[in-house]
Predict the structure.
Amino acid sequence: MSSISNQSISDNDLIEGCIKGDRKMQRELYNRFAPKMYGVCLRYAANAEEAEDILQEGFIMVFKKISSFRGEGSFEGWIRRIIVHTCINILKKNKKFNESVDLIHANSLHMREDAIPSIIQAKQVIECIRLLPIGYRTVLNLYAIEGFSHREIGTMLDIEESTSRSQYTRAKAMLEEMLIRKKIIHRPKEHPLVAATGL
């Protein structure tokens, strides 16, 4: 993944070359998009080795399906969707997504919803996400980053929509506690009235 991409080759040329089975174009496509897609895989995988395996499987699917790309939306976005679905399919084979870990502070969240997609990209935060139970980690990624609804996530993971919602709430709470412990974010100060009344 350290190979340098030749940016002078257009995406369209890459696509046409890959459809024809041109090995040079396949290698160029991989070099151009693999580093970013590896970052996607890291957020779902338990470790770097698993992320590498998912990445390889994902690009096999990209090359198999490349002739189906119709130019609607960005090519990178199309590749990302295949990589995300590859992540889910591989994780579903061996894992269970119906986790129920009770958290004392699950209903006292401070992390703003709109702050999650930006903060989640930081390397330290990705490390924390990988420590979450697999169900929490997967739902958090699918909802906060990929933008799937809880209904869609439920269908993808074969879980109830309500399970997706509760896992997302708990994932946010657990992630927030980790980030506070590691001093990546600070615990918000309670308003004096709230602290006094416990509301």
